[in-house]
Amino acid sequence: MRVVFDFGGVLFRWHPPSFLARVWPQRCPDEAAGAVAAREFFTQYAGDWGAFDQGLIGPEEVIHRIAARTGWPEADVRAVVDAVPSELQAVAGTVALIEAAQAAGHRTHYLSNMPGIYADHLERQYPLDRWFESGIFSSRVKHSKPGAEIFSLMEAQLAVPPEDIVFLDDHPDNIEAAAARGWQAILFTTPEAASATLRERGLIR
Questions:
Q1: How many whole angstroms separate alpha carbon 49 and alpha carbon 22?
Q2: Kind and range of the H or E element at 110?
């Protein structure tokens, strides 16, 4: 079996409301305000941030576009873009889940919507080559989830029947797209819940 992990919100901490409350305390005094700002800043990972995810624009352009769209000062927008690597901390429970999948004889991979500068950072800071046999970053293939193209690229890389792919992601749209292709798609909420689901399916001990 091939077990495929998303990164932000699954293997790495990614919670925009609390992130923006930390980075922008003057603008987001609490998580509720952070959630409102996050919807405007990241636009549900479409628009300008979606283009950043897909590697179609770089950090300077996304900063300029977000500032122009929202009216926020470019310096404020840059502070958020620059702070993302500090938000992307490995989640210990998910690392343990990867190790459990490997111990059970499964091969592990990743499929992540990730701008290039952050993908580079994660490769420098974490042992991705130990955790995963292979993977795809959206910025390096110019496609992103939930688009069909990136799932097709993953299938070509894995070269197994769709039903032999177990996929963990925290976004319902991505899960629906994977399930429609015949993948065993599991909506990730916490490492503990994901572990329980994999145990119920007999995939890990």
A1: 20
A2: strand 107-112
Domain ranges in the chain are 2-13+89-200, 16-87
Q: Which residue has the tokens 């909420």?
A: 189
Number of residues that make up the chain: 205
Alpha helices in 104-137 (DSSP H): 116-125, 128-131
**In the 8-state DSSP scheme, what is residue 29?**
S
Q: Please give the CATH superfamily to which domain 2-13+89-200 belongs.
A: HAD superfamily/HAD-like (3.40.50.1000)
Q: What is the residue-level pLDDT of the chain in tens, covering all 205 positions?
A: 999 999 999 999 999 999 999 999 999 999 999 999 999 999 988 899 999 999 999 999 999 999 999 999 999 999 999 999 999 999 999 999 999 999 999 999 999 999 999 999 999 999 999 999 999 999 999 999 999 999 999 999 999 999 999 999 999 999 999 999 999 999 999 999 999 999 999 999 9
What 3-state class would DSSP assign to 109?
A: strand
C-beta of residue 19 within 8 angstroms of C-beta of residue 34: yes
pTM metric for this prediction:
0.97
